[in-house]
Amino acid sequence: MTVQPIRLFGDPVLRTPADEVKTFDRELRRLVRDLSDTMLDEGGAGLAAPQLGVGLRVFSFDVDDVTGHLVNPVLEFPDEEEQDGPEGCLSIPGLYFDTVRRMNVIAKGYNEYGDPMQIVGTGMMARCLQHETDHLDGVLFIERLDSERRKAAMKEIRAAEWYNDAVKVKVSPHEPRRGVFHKLCAWSSPARRKSRCPHCRRSPTVVTNWWRSSPVPTPGWGAVENCPDPRWPPGPMNAASRC
Ligand SMILES: [Zn+2]
């Protein structure tokens, strides 16, 4: 098993468009295995590479007993039919919001060896293919909601335990201009972790992000401190999560 930690809402990597895969090598096959193992471990319907912090256009899926992956996907819509129903995301754990999607999708791409593939999806599979391809474009499903639904969704996200408790800012010399700024810092890349806070130009604040599985405390943004549980989020939330 090569289960990896999943990046959560607020991590800039989830807002960054992923790059096309150019080399179908052993690294890519390892990534595909990580995506599949992590998706199945979390009970998700799909998982895109940016959710593991990798900016490549690859996702895995597991819908209605059809399991697979797709590299460099391009979507086509054969008709105008739509569906409206609950959608979730492993990067926004435990929360579901009704989302309008196209009912029928044809996804064209490649497998891990570079062979052309086509998946014809309807219903839940079509929803999954659209959701995962959105991830590769740096788009989260809450951005597909109309303004009223999105407002309600953001309220629930801000109230979610994982959103408020996963990252605890212990030292914040200045009130951040935007509420989540220091949380974003905590979720950023190792390179950015070393940088100074653009608000106050001070050194990184010590934060707690105990969803990380690393047992070793590290200094700076994203320091892990006395993790009470090596896995996060705890059981029931994982089981309920999709995508
Ligand atoms: Zn997702």
Can you describe this structure?
Helices cover 27% and strands 24% of the residues. Mean pLDDT is 76; it is low at 168-243. By secondary structure, it is α+β, with helices and mostly antiparallel strands. The protein is globular. The chain is built from seven helices and nine strands; from the N terminus they run αβββββββαααβααβα. It has two domains: 12-159, Peptide Deformylase (Alpha-Beta Complex), CATH 3.90.45; 161-240, no CATH class. This is Peptide deformylase. Removes the formyl group from the N-terminal Met of newly synthesized proteins. Requires at least a dipeptide for an efficient rate of reaction. N-terminal L-methionine is a prerequisite for activity but the enzyme has broad specificity at other positions. InterPro entries: Peptide_deformylase (IPR023635), Peptide_deformylase_sf (IPR036821). One of its GO terms (molecular function) is metal ion binding.
